[in-house]
Write a structure and sequence with these properties.
Strand content: 35-45%
Structural class: alpha+beta
Distance between the termini: 38 Å
Shape: globular
């Protein structure tokens, strides 16, 4: 089920990410400005080509990656999307819950895309060996409340 937003530039981006395919990267400049900045827990880049490489790597490294947008908050030049990112890694189904802050240039293209998600909870804790260590650290450092 694709979410709809009343503002066309936001609705267009939701549709892009919910239907994202490798071929879409060839027309990235219709969604992002040339100097757009992108940041997530593993990357921080500026420009369309570095962003293309990040998303291309996603398609190469992960099985069946797809985004499901859960909510769009805000409008005008700023929007926050909450999403679930589904993929397989070594034949294991995974899901990351996160949010993206998007800032739109006057022409409706994105000039800032910042992803927020907890790499420890959403990824590391789910991996064998490393996950056991992360869960132990969480218990040890947590307040127990």
């Amino acid at each position: 089920m694709t979410m709809r937003h009343p503002e066309p530039h936001i609705d267009r981006v939701i549709a892009l990410f919910e239907q994202l395919a490798p071929a879409d990267l060839a027309r990235w400049e219709s969604y992002y400005t040339e100097g757009a900045r992108f940041k997530d827990p593993f990357n921080e880049v500026a420009g369309i080509e570095p962003m293309r490489r990040i998303f291309s790597h996603m398609f190469d490294a992960l099985g069946h990656p797809r985004f499901v947008v859960r909510q769009a908050i805000g409008g005008g030049p700023d929007c926050v999307l909450t999403w679930d990112f589904h993929f397989t890694l070594r034949a294991r189904a995974m899901r990351i819950h996160g949010a993206s802050h998007l800032h739109f240039a006057p022409d409706g293209r994105i000039d800032l895309h910042r992803d927020y998600w907890d790499a420890a909870e959403e990824l590391y804790e789910k991996l064998p060996l490393l996950g056991a260590l992360m869960r132990w650290l969480k218990r040890r450092l947590g307040s127990g409340a």
